[in-house]
Write a structure and sequence with these properties.
- One of its GO terms (biological process) is response to nitrate.
- Keywords: Cell membrane, Membrane, Nitrate assimilation, Signal, Transmembrane, Transmembrane helix.
- There is one protein chain.
- The strands form 2 sheets. Strands 2, 4, 5, 7, 8 and 9 form a 6-stranded mixed beta sheet that branches.
- 24% of the residues lie in helices and 31% in strands.
- By secondary structure, the protein is of the alpha+beta class.
- The radius of gyration is 26 Å and the shape is elongated.
- The chain has a domain of 135 residues: Macroglobulin (MG2) domain (Immunoglobulin-like), CATH 2.60.40.1930.
- The longest helix has 30 residues.
Length: 199
């Protein structure tokens, strides 16, 4: 009896998510192939380096929905190691609430295969470990398929981007010079004050 109630509640939850127009990541087929130029563990710099991408239909998966694909989006996504204790990067199965993939690399009408697309890493990309994921959208504007450069557990083919800290060597040198000047000035004033008190 409990199992029947549990099954009924699961069906109701699924139906409510469908009627609300929410798409669950777990319901999407992995029918897209995605590859990116960074190698495992490579460190790239925001505002300097490029990522070269290739993506399209996964030929190893029998797919009858190719004609339904209307738009393709490719996104830069946080790896689990960079999501720990960061709720604003949290992975949620409901794609409307999911925060895994926050940076859009490519957003164009669907093409069967795209190779050699070059994306310069934007300056506002924060320091973190990433992977790349693609979504195919249907005519209703909702995700209907995906592909990614990592495995299902998101542990392979991860790369790191080093964000811009806002600090430069010239600023560090200037701050050190001003600190030394402040200490020398303080010491000098102390010595002058000491001489004047003796006289």
């Amino acid at each position: 009896m409990k199992s029947i109630l549990l099954l009924a509640s699961l069906i109701l939850c699924f139906l409510s998510s469908v009627t609300n127009g929410d798409v669950l990541f777990s319901s999407l087929p992995r029918s897209l192939s995605v590859s990116a130029s960074p190698t495992e563990g490579q460190v790239l710099k925001a505002g300097e380096n490029d990522i070269v991408l290739a993506f399209g239909l996964n030929q190893t998966v029998a797919n009858q929905t190719n004609g339904l694909y209307k738009k393709m989006e490719v996104k830069l996504c946080y790896a689990p190691i960079s999501q720990v204790d960061r709720k604003w990067r949290k992975t949620v199965d409901n794609l409307k609430k999911d925060k895994t993939c926050q940076f859009t690399i490519y957003d164009k009408p669907y093409e069967t295969n795209v190779e050699g697309f070059r994306w310069k890493i934007e300056k506002d990309i924060p320091t973190a470990t990433y992977f790349v994921r693609a979504y195919a959208y249907g005519s209703n504007g909702e995700e209907i398929a995906y592909g990614q450069t990592t495995n299902d557990k998101k542990t392979d083919n991860l790369f790191r981007i080093q964000g811009i800290s806002g600090r430069h060597a010239s600023l560090d040198i200037a701050s050190v010079c001003f600190s030394v000047f402040a200490l020398v000035s303080l010491f000098g004033f102390f010595m002058i004050e000491k001489r004047q008190s003796k006289s």
